[in-house]
Amino acid sequence: MWQKIINIAKTASSMLHCGQVPPNTPPEYRKDLSKVNFLSSKKFYVVFCSVIILAIFYGASILVLFLTGPVPHLTVPFVSIFTETIKILAIIIASYLGVQTVLDYRMQSNSSVELEGSYTKEEKEEKIIMDYAEKFKDDPSYAPLDWIQERVL
Question: Pick the residue with more confidence: 101 or 142?
Fold first, then answer.
């Protein structure tokens, strides 16, 4: 039984880290599953954090209910406030996820936050102009725009 619990924990952990594979994964799926990282998805991250926040709220509410046990006239308002707070939190989370999903669908994008892109080196025009101006300073057919503007004014 402990081994199954450990395997479940290792599987959950591997899905939250890049480069790790769940235990007992067939060799043909190892390469694909090592690339999976659910925390790179904004929607999963929001849901994951929301579950943690709700668990903290639940634990705190149980503690407060035990503390308000001797004073029953405080228990009923606390339960009302707690349930309304959870409803508002659920509405905020659902709204965010709904808007994010609609935007992803509408813009043909995904909710991945992985770093992607390419590096391009940009060379400044001034350096290019100075290099060519120095190279062709004696050639009358070459005239940069700066020289033309200086001569006209």
Answer: 101
| Residue 13 located in a structural domain | yes
pLDDT of residue 2 exceeding 70: yes
Domain count, the chain: 3
Token readout for 3 is 């081994």
Q: Are residues 49 and 97 in the same domain?
A: yes
**Mean pLDDT over all residues of the chain?**
76
Domain around 152: 124-153
Q: Scanning the structure block, which residue is given the tokens 């009923």?
A: 76
Nearest-5° Cα angle at 43, 41 to 47: 120
- Who wins on pLDDT, 84 or 19? 84
Q: Residue 50: how many CB atoms within 10 A of its CB? A: 17
